[in-house]
Amino acid sequence: MNLKLEGRRCLVTGASAGIGASIVESLAREGARVVATARRSDALDKFADSIERVGHHRPVTIAGDITEADEVKRIAKEAAAAIGDIEILVNCAGGSRPLPIDASEEAWEESFSLNFTQVRRMTGEVLPAMRRARWGRIINITGIMEPRGINGAIAAKAAVHLWAKGLSRDVAREGITVNNVPPGRIESEQIARMYPPKERSEFVDANVPIGYFGEPSDLAPLVVFLASPISRYITGTVIPVDGGMTYFGAA
């Protein structure tokens, strides 16, 4: 299937490893021009080199901390200067934030800054160009909606889902789609820390019908499809990639 992404201009956050890196690689394989941003400049550059070595367009790399409003503006501006107005935004940066019942205000603010506010801000930076062009794709990598305890990231990602649904309705007639992809347990540095072998086996047996944790490459194809022109009638959705872990329709 031709996804018609050749030359499309993309920005992917949280792109130095794991799901973000797999999405960048998959977009580059389709011929898209990609800006990859994350905090770790060395990891970004090493990853970009590996994509170039296999014959794909080398992603432009921009290091920065997207929890800072000024950094979001800088990254968006440098991305547009490097490849032109951004047509496809993948908000992938984020992280789990388990919190105690009496968590501090600072802990909650950090959780929402990383998992909600930066998504809204980065979208706000690239959306005007999409509206002028009357075409755009916004895909948010979010999280499960069935918490097993208090987690600041889950609350923030729930906010992303509802904000994105509202936005999808406001911009649908301008050719812009907005969708959310909540991963289940996808292999990453964070997952490796959270689930040593014994805990992993127990969690899979209790919660993952398919019987194993996913790989970033299990999620990236869906994102690439949602980024393509042929997905034009899909918007305002929440589509889990979780091996059947979700019990009910995601919020």
UniProtKB/TrEMBL annotation:
InterPro entries: NAD(P)-bd_dom_sf, SDR, SDR_fam. Pfam families: adh_short_C2 (PF13561). PANTHER family: 3-OXOACYL-(ACYL-CARRIER-PROTEIN) REDUCTASE, 3-OXOACYL-[ACYL-CARRIER-PROTEIN] REDUCTASE FABG. Belongs to the short-chain dehydrogenases/reductases (SDR) family. This is 3-oxoacyl-[acyl-carrier protein] reductase. It comes from Paraburkholderia aspalathi. The lineage of its organism: Bacteria, Pseudomonadati, Pseudomonadota, Betaproteobacteria, Burkholderiales.
